[in-house]
Amino acid sequence: MLSPAALVDKFAADTPQGVWVKANLSSDNGELTWQDITWVQLRRAVDLVARQMEDDLGAGAGDETLGYIGGGDLRYAVVLMAALKCGYKPMLLSPRNSREGHASLLKRTQCSKLAFSPELRSMALDLAGESNDFMATELPALPDLFAAPDSTHYESLVKGEMEDHETVAILHSSGTTGLPKPIYVRSGVLRVGAKLTTMPVPEGRRSMVEGLYSTKLMVSTLPFFHIFGVILLVRCIHHQQPLVMLPFGKPPTAEFVLETIAKAKPTGLVCPPSILEDLCKLPGGLEAISTLDTVLFGGAPLARSCGDNLSKVTNLYNGIGSTEAWIIPNLVAADPADWDYHEWNPNVGIVMEPTGDDKLAELVIRRQPGNDYQTVFHNFPDLNEWRTNDLFERHPTKPTLWKYVGRIDDILVLSNGEKLNPVTFEKIVEGHPGVSGVLVVGAGQFQASLLVEPNPERVKAGADALVQELWSTVEEANIQYPAHARVWRSMITLASPEKPFKRTAKGSVMRQATYRLYEAELKALYDKQQQPLTNGHSVNGVLGSSNAKATIRSAVKSVLVSRAEPITDDTNFFSLGMDSLQVMQLLQTLSLYHITCTTRMVYENPSVDLLLRAVTNGQANDSVLNSVSREEKMSAMIHRYSKFVPMNPPSKARGALPRAVTGWRSYWRPRLLARVAPTASSGQTILLVGSTGALGTHLLHELINNPSINRVYCLNRSAEAIQKQITSFSDRDLGTINFTAHPKVQFLKGETHQENFGLDPDVYAELARDVDLLISNAWPVNFNSSLESFEGVIAGTKRCVDFAASSARRAHVVFVSSVASVMNFSAVRRRDEDAADEVAWVPEEFDADNSLPAKQGYGESKHVASCILEKAARRGVISATILRVGQLAGTAEGKGLWNQREWVPTLIKTSKSLGKIPRSLGPANDGIAWVPLDMAAKVILDLVPPSVQGTMGNLRCFNVVNPQVAPWNELAAVVQQHHSDMEPGQTLDAVEFEEWLNELGAVGVSNGAEEAERFPALKLLDFFEGLKADGEKGLWRFETEKGVELSPTMAQMGAVNGELMRKWLDEWEF
């Protein structure tokens, strides 16, 4: 197999601009942004580090170990590949190890060469100072590393192919059971790990690994020195699916994950349970998670309530594995409600071996001859079985399901997945003369706590005095443990003399029995610790005292007790490795001194000086967390209506109703209007949702006149739809038609957001049997409404998906969207280096970015509906076409009054009242691409012919705009001339858009609502101000090449000219 470094070289040559990861390379506190790190950038970074290693440390001797310790970022992956290139076995050291842990690993692997990042300089040099033979090199800062020029090319000193037995990396155990132990990861493990998606699975089932590896863009909170970080690295390299990395230099908190989901738009997330539990508690957290296709957690149990909620909104995978055995490829739960159980793939070789407890079994992997998928035996080729020491409990009614319950030994598993061995800690504290017994507890909690049984003679001293006396001994124990295993001062509680510890005959403390004895007290302790974190929204007034700075400084130093680096008042906490647990510890410590602040304050003010300024200025405002961005609102609504129920494959026969629509019950039985029996014909059947409006009328006219159309069902909400349709046809010179007895058209009263569209079940079943094409054209046009006000029609879009999915003929869905759904394109997609006059082109393809819609509910709602359709198509539920329709004007031929309530006639009527018209609408809006209404209907049916039979999963997107652009100033001149002709002696001055808006605003302030008739643009003032802002974001246009190729009407369409403009002005009569 090619080594990871050789594969990166290959990708850099074949697809240099392919994305490896998306990363935030800045460690400042500004707005989070992500940049693509490409394969060629990764290769240059690897080559830069490899050359530095060879220059500073010499070439590796093949089996020589090179250690690396850094800040938990992308440099771990770079070092792994660079070390392989220059002949070393890379050992990836966790920065959370104690000094003794690092020294032990270096000694056991005979490692005398070390690379380190600037953040860990003091610790690295301290370790290097242990021996005169030790060599060390400091790597560049992260941003500099990925800015390496192409001239850094480094030729690998070793062959690119690796044998299965060769070491790819040395990881290590967590050190919770003592000193960490090195674990050698062999090339065979990576080779097999990469192909786990090909492992056979039982018929009708899926492997969890498939979801992990196939997710397009996945957020990872895990560092590359962790086994799961290496697994994700394999995912990136072997499956070329990029990761989104959390911000550099900051702890992986739920707040940052939430912000990352909102801004980076991933489709998956991998994180420990504690982050998921915190996400569920954050405002908008569950909605954000619902935007993801895949969420995988592991390492510890997940709170039941949290998991139950998550499993209802996303695919929740309960992962399990180890550094020795890689990830175990479970089967995806057949029932999402069983998310907290594991079901083993029979090809893994797992045996659940009974223990002394009747309910529990140990997971054991036994070698199966010829089974190449057993990763653990590539790491340990001499073994025939691997005992995990993990205990599981069988499901009470489903014998193939197993729930993880803990370890055979006394290891405590915290809720964040970290493990700690309590025995050593307990023994150190028990060495204090004032102590009879000690118990470390915390299984399933975010942190450990200490239950202390004092000697009887010390009880009278009082709890505070006893804790003060014990604290130095507890600190001694804390230094021996990694950060996640330490006990805070506030997490110490004393046992009561009335309830002595339970002990065996030998005098040993009975762990579980004693825990149960004090379960209520321990629960109260943990509950109390949460209060300052959830209720601390204000800053205590005592912080003005002169010792506040000293208190904060002391608290920070106590949290970072094992750090060798000097901590000054301007040192960034996170550059010293402060993690989320230590942030919580800092808050708890400060609260003991009546200093209350929030986690957000610490993240935004990560030094003693900054934090002091923040708390004394009262900046404990959580409004950032409590506010929900428009992107989050859209995301929540998209996924509220993207839960698609798998349908039974429908029959293609006309006479067979699909099971999905038979026997449905309607809560409201609407009246069927002018129902006639369908004629026997092989022509197509269309369901037109929304036929009485301007575009709907012209669409219906075109469908009636199309000989390939057999029947058109018109679904409208109004009981007077037939009369409205007759009037609309007459007003537009489309003929006088009696729709009450039309041989081709049938009107139905109903609404898409209702069950069965609000139709009689038999009628709905008829539609589901016959319809070939559904055109969704019913949408309220109101630029002042919020996204929430459009939820009814958005829910209707989901109902349309359900209808199409269950229909006998797999009806194709056509959604009449709007250019408003991408109106923010220039601001989002334009790069800083783009020239001001450079046009940004909106492609003829769908984009799910929630930042693209115009900042008003109408455009957002169109985007949300489009996303629902895109998800349905991507999942193979339906096929669909999304039409981004631009500004529809009056007709090109015949009568066709342009609705006077729309923004263009509103602007012109208001301009005539003001005596001023904008000479420009902003650079982005001055290219007029309006489409005459009658031509728009023809274009739509050109682009989506009724005979379209897209395969499930097919999605097409077109920009229905005029390919020929007219300058606004020329059309404004026509309006000026028309006004002069109609009102001799009156002028219509051309002014800047800003002046026009100011004049309009002054009218609104001075004259109030009574002027709304003369100045109708007052009702759209926010829209016009947004139009001005959008127009100044740079030039942007819509691509139309695909549309022009498919639509003769679009190909022959000319630009809007003076003649058309005068036609519409005459029809408005103002």
Automatic annotation (TrEMBL):
Gene3D superfamilies: ACP-like, N-terminal domain of ligase-like, NAD(P)-binding Rossmann-like Domain. InterPro entries: ACP-like_sf, Adenylate-forming_Reductase, AMP-binding_CS, AMP-dep_synth/lig_dom, ANL_N_sf, FAR_NAD-bd, NAD(P)-bd_dom_sf, PP-bd_ACP. Residues 543-619 form the Carrier domain. Keywords: Phosphopantetheine, Phosphoprotein. It comes from Parathielavia hyrcaniae. Signal peptide: none annotated. PANTHER family: ENZYME, PUTATIVE (JCVI)-RELATED, PHENYLACETATE-COENZYME A LIGASE. Pfam families: AMP-binding, AMP-binding_C_3, NAD_binding_4, PP-binding. It comes from the Eukaryota. SUPFAM superfamilies: Acetyl-CoA synthetase-like, ACP-like, NAD(P)-binding Rossmann-fold domains. This is Acetyl-CoA synthetase-like protein. The lineage of its organism: Eukaryota, Fungi, Dikarya, Ascomycota, Pezizomycotina.
